[in-house]
Structure formats: structure tokens, C-alpha cells
Design a protein that fits this description.
The protein is an alpha+beta fold and 548 residues long. Helices cover 20% and strands 40% of the residues. The chain starts with 10 loop residues before the first helix and ends in a 9-residue tail after the last strand.
């Protein structure tokens, strides 16, 4: 027998301490992290993670990060006393990363074990039931000594029957209970398995970031990175109170993501920045002039010409525009010069399955002016419109749900950026809240006449007359607005003269040349008539190009 040489006792504590340091270093290599904040842009999200760094750690690995992570956007910061060195990024299949097991696996295994136990107990009960049936129905030869001995006295027969009855009843009852419990567990297990499979399918590959560091004391390591795909878009609700009249605007944000990692109870920031846009604008190309070469002589036409090949479809340049940014609409707003960030006060959860989460981000009340608007030449109908002053702040264009006196009126589009205003006047935005069936609109058939004019009849004259009638069937006075399209000359040889009855309120409504607007009060049960006569003259034989 041989013995290993004994080490001097003073070295034993040193080696033990060294072993403890090695164990601590190995334990610090894999560090759990959590998402603390997500900044959402249109189509891009910046995710911030935090991990605890123990004192004395020399490296740290953050694993199970999504494969959509943009490695060029990685930013690493640490608390005072934790010095960060170089870092490396490693991508591998999820099946090969033992640390990336789904947190649902433990719960799924526990449920599967419970179901297996119940199935085993149900099999035992079925065996007992089979045995009881065999005992109760065992045949015996009638009149034989064995049958008489097995039957026993009447009291014994009655006791045996009672035992068999109770055993069978207990077995059937317990079997039914096990079946119900098993069904409940399987219902609980099914969504967990589906969620685990969903996460596994989205994260077929995962990213690990290994950071070399020197931790003089315990602290936090913060990792920020960008992922493509997540985004947010605006949505609004507009509720009109006709008695006010006033409009209550509710600002909403629709958030969705499928980055491969769930955002569980994180702080959300919504930014108006556009990181997807080009960072440099297009530059002008040189404008060159040259003399065109003389045209080459054409070959004589052939007797039979082959059909010309269809021209290749013109390739359209892809639009570089990105979805419109959504402002945050909430209490906390930070102006960063070129972008504005809005902080959602509550922590929310956004799963990585594309589910759209709606965030309510405040309301704004605005007084409104009600107008009944109609364009009889286009449609014989009137619509209720609320005109409001655009609220302060950033309100990107988005869909809006419209409610009139508590009833849903439909959907529309809210775009304060497209609001036009007359010079020197405040901008006014219009929201249409559906058709007003108590206002009857009728457009008479157009009257047209044409003839020659000029000293020698060298010019053609065409007259067109359009008349409209509007009836107010309401019990109160309303503000009526009638829109009409007038012809506009685009050539110096075409002359247009227009006459209106009554005189229009605006000859360029909404700053649109050629759009005529009459606006006036219309009393209850009253009727208003409007007419427009246009005289168009142009040279004889000229073919007009009209675009009504």
C-alpha cells in the first residue's frame, strides 16, 4: 500500500481558500438577468437588462438572449467598483444551451407526474374492480358440497354482498374523481406546453454575451441592445357630446413584439425617434448638358413584323419611409432635442407572440363647433362634423374610434399635421361623426348650354348650372356647410367665369383652390337653396381635358 505525501499544514488553508475562490468565480460566470426597461421606436426596440455582480467576480455571462439582437448596438455599463473589460458574443442553438431551458419545464414536469400518478391509481382501481366482478360472479356447481361451503350462512352471504357493494361503489366513485382531476390537470398542462413550444420555436438560436470584468465590490451590470421588429403605433378614441358641444380625445398606444423574449413587468418608454430612417440625406447629382447626336436612319419595315416584347415593368424605388412614430401621451415627457420620449407610468407585460397590448395614456377635452357638412354634387347626404383646435403636443396620425353621445359611430383617421388654416387664423381640425339623416339633401340635374362667341365665332362657350336644396328636419337650428367644386383653368386660352347664389363664404375652402363653401345657420324645418353657374370659353376646335 502506498500513501500520498502529506502537505504541510500551513498550505491547507491556502489551498482551501483557492478552491473557494475558484468555485465563486465559476458560479459567477452564469448570471441571471432581468429586463428593466424597453424603449420603443417604430420597428426597433432598445432593451435594457440588469445582472448582479458579486464581489471578486472576474467574468460574467448573460445567456439566453434573443437571436435578433444587434451586436453593433451593444452597450455595457456597471456600477462604481465594477471595471468592465472586453466582451464577446456567442450564438448557438437553443437545444445546446443548457441554461436556456424554459422556466415552464419544471411546472410541466410536475403536472405530468401528477397525471401519471392518477393514471396509475386508476389502473389499480380498474384491477380491483375486475377482481370484485370475478368474485361476485364466480360459478359453483349447484348442490355440491363446495358450493354450500362457499355460500355459508345467510348472514355471511348478506355481509359478503354488502362488502362487495361498498367496495364497488368506492371504486367507481374514486375512478370518477380521478378522471375529473386528470381532465383538469390536462387542461392546465395544454397552454403551458403550447407556450413552451412557442418560445422554443421563436428562439431556435440564442445569444450569450460574456464580459470580462474586475469587481472590487458587489454591484450591477447593465446591458443595452437593440432588436428589430417590435414597435408601437397610435390609436385614438373621440367621444362627441352634442349637448356641450365638446370632444373628449383619449390617446392610446398599441404595442406588439415577437423578438423571442417576453417583457415581463418592465418600464416602457415610447419615443418619437426614427432610428430606421437614413442617417444621411440624398445629395444632388451634377446637371450636365450636351448636344444630342443625329438620329440614326431607320431600317425599312419588314414584311412581317414579330410582335414586340412587352416592356419590362418599371422598377419602383422602395419607399424609405417608416411607420409614423407614436408619442407617449402620458405624464412624463422628456424633450431630447431631436426626439421626445414619453414614459408609461405602470410596468406592463408584453409577450413575444405578436399580441397587441393597448395602453391608455391620458385624455384631452376640447370644446367643439358642430357643423352639418354636405357636398351635394358628390353625394346627396349630410354628415355631422365637429371642429376643434388641435391640442398641444405631438399627436401623430392614427386611426380613431368615433362615438356620438355614447353610441359608436364608426372609425376614421386623425391627422392634426394635415390641418390647414387660413393666413393669420388658428388651425382647425375636423372630425366627422357619421351621417345626419334628419338633414335632407337634393341635387338637381345639371343644366348645360353651349354655343359660339367672339366676333367671328372663333371661340366656344359652355354654360353649366348646378342647384342644390337642403332641408333641416331637426327641431333646432344647425350650422350648414355646403361644398361645391368649381372649374379651374390650367391654360391661358381657357377662361372661366363663375356666379353663385347666394355669395359663397369661402372661395378656397381648406386652402383648396376651386372648392367653394357656403356656410350659414339653418333654422328648424327650414329649407336652403344654393346655385352655381359657370361659363367656360375656349378656342374653337380645342379639345378640353377635364378632370372633375
Amino acid at each position: 500500500m502506498t500513501f500520498a505525501p502529506l502537505l504541510p499544514w500551513p498550505l491547507l488553508p491556502v489551498l482551501a481558500c483557492s478552491a473557494l475562490l475558484c468555485a465563486a468565480s465559476a458560479a459567477a460566470q452564469e448570471a441571471p438577468s432581468r429586463i428593466t426597461r424597453v424603449t420603443l421606436y417604430p420597428g426597433v426596440a432598445t432593451v435594457e437588462r440588469v445582472a448582479r455582480v458579486p464581489a471578486g467576480a472576474r467574468n460574467l455571462t448573460l445567456s439566453c438572449l434573443p437571436a435578433t439582437l444587434d451586436t453593433q448596438s451593444l452597450q455595457i455599463q456597471a456600477d462604481v467598483g465594477v471595471h468592465v473589460g472586453e466582451f464577446s458574443v456567442h450564438t448557438e442553438d437553443r437545444e445546446l444551451a443548457s441554461a436556456c431551458a424554459s422556466p415552464l419545464d419544471g411546472r410541466i414536469r410536475a403536472l405530468e407526474d401528477q397525471i401519471a400518478t392518477m393514471r396509475a391509481e386508476a389502473a389499480g382501481l380498474q384491477l380491483a374492480e375486475t377482481f370484485l366482478k370475478a368474485v361476485a360472479g364466480s360459478p359453483a356447481s349447484e348442490g355440491s358440497s363446495t358450493a354450500r361451503t362457499a355460500a355459508g350462512t345467510p348472514a355471511q352471504i348478506s355481509a359478503t354482498a354488502e362488502v362487495l357493494r361498498q367496495s364497488g361503489q368506492s371504486t367507481q366513485s374514486r375512478t370518477h374523481q380521478l378522471r375529473r382531476q386528470q381532465e383538469a390537470l390536462e387542461l392546465e398542462l395544454k397552454p403551458l406546453v403550447a407556450e413552451r413550444d412557442r418560445v422554443a420555436s421563436q428562439r431556435t438560436r440564442v445569444v450569450s454575451v460574456r464580459v470580462n470584468l474586475a469587481a472590487e465590490r458587489e454591484g450591477e451590470l447593465r446591458l443595452a441592445y437593440q432588436v428589430r421588429g417590435p414597435g408601437w403605433q397610435p390609436s385614438y378614441r373621440a367621444a362627441l357630446d352634442t349637448a356641450g358641444p365638446a370632444v373628449q380625445l383619449e390617446r392610446l398606444a398599441l404595442v406588439a413584439q415577437n423578438s423571442g423574449e417576453d417583457w415581463n413587468k418592465v418600464q416602457i418608454l415610447l419615443s418619437t425617434g426614427q432610428p430606421n430612417r437614413a442617417t444621411q440625406g440624398r445629395l444632388p447629382r451634377p446637371w450636365t448638358l450636351d448636344v444630342a447626336p443625329p438620329p440614326s436612319p431607320r431600317p425599312p419595315p419588314a414584311m412581317a413584323m414579330a410582335p414586340a416584347a412587352a416592356p419590362a415593368p418599371a422598377m419602383r424605388e422602395r419607399s424609405s419611409t417608416t411607420p409614423e412614430a407614436l408619442p407617449g401621451f402620458e405624464v412624463s415627457a422628456t424633450d431630447k432635442g431631436f426626439a421626445t420620449e414619453f414614459a408609461v407610468p405602470q410596468h406592463i407585460t408584453v409577450p413575444s407572440n405578436g399580441q397587441r397590448i393597448t395602453l391608455a395614456l391620458g385624455t384631452h377635452n376640447a370644446p367643439a363647433q358642430l357643423i352639418t357638412r354636405t357636398a351635394p354634387g358628390v353625394e346627396e347626404a349630410a354628415y355631422l362634423v365637429a371642429e376643434i383646435t388641435p391640442p398641444p403636443g405631438v399627436w401623430p396620425a392614427g386611426n380613431v374610434g368615433l362615438y356620438r353621445d355614447g353610441a359608436f359611430a364608426g372609425t376614421g383617421r386623425l391627422d392634426f399635421a394635415a390641418t390647414a388654416a387660413a393666413p393669420g387664423a388658428a388651425p382647425v381640425a375636423s372630425l366627422s361623426f357619421g351621417r345626419d339623416d334628419r338633414v335632407l339633401v337634393r341635387a338637381e340635374a345639371p343644366q348645360e348650354m353651349s354655343g359660339s362667341t367672339g366676333l367671328t365665332g372663333s371661340r366656344t362657350e359652355r354654360r353649366t348650372r348646378r342647384s342644390y336644396q337642403v332641408d333641416n328636419r331637426h327641431t333646432s337650428t344647425l350650422t350648414l356647410q355646403v361644398l361645391h367644386a368649381a372649374p379651374i383653368s390650367r391654360h391661358e386660352s381657357i377662361e372661366v367665369e363663375s356666379r353663385y347664389q347666394p355669395a359663397p363664404t369661402d372661395l378656397a375652402w381648406n386652402r383648396q383652390s376651386g372648392t367653394i363653401a357656403w356656410q350659414q345657420p339653418l333654422a328648424a324645418s327650414a329649407t336652403a337653396r344654393f346655385s352655381a353657374e359657370h361659363t367656360i370659353t375656349y378656342p374653337q376646335g380645342t379639345e378640353l381635358l377635364e378632370r372633375p
